[in-house]
C-alpha cells in the first residue's frame, strides 16, 4: 500500500466530498470542522475509519480530541505523527 506523504489535500477532499456532501463548498486547512458545523459526531467516526484505511494508522479513542480533530491541518499533523511513529 502506498502511503501519501501529504495527507492534507486528501483530507480536505474527503471532508468536502464525503462528509459535507458538497464539493462546491470549500474549506481551508484551518477551518474549525466541529465548531463551524462542517462535520458532526457521525462524521468524525467516518473520518476516523477513513484515516485508518487510507493511511494505515490506528486511531485509539483517547486520541479523538478537539486538539487532534479541530481542523484539516490538525488532523494532517496527527496523521503525519502517527505515520512517523510507525516507521
TrEMBL record:
The keyword Lyase does not apply. Gene3D superfamilies: ACP-like. Keywords: Ligase. It comes from the Bacteria. One of its GO terms (molecular function) is ligase activity. Residues 6-83 form the Carrier domain. This is D-alanine--poly(Phosphoribitol) ligase subunit 2. It comes from Stieleria maiorica. The lineage of its organism: Bacteria, Pseudomonadati, Planctomycetota, Planctomycetia, Pirellulales.
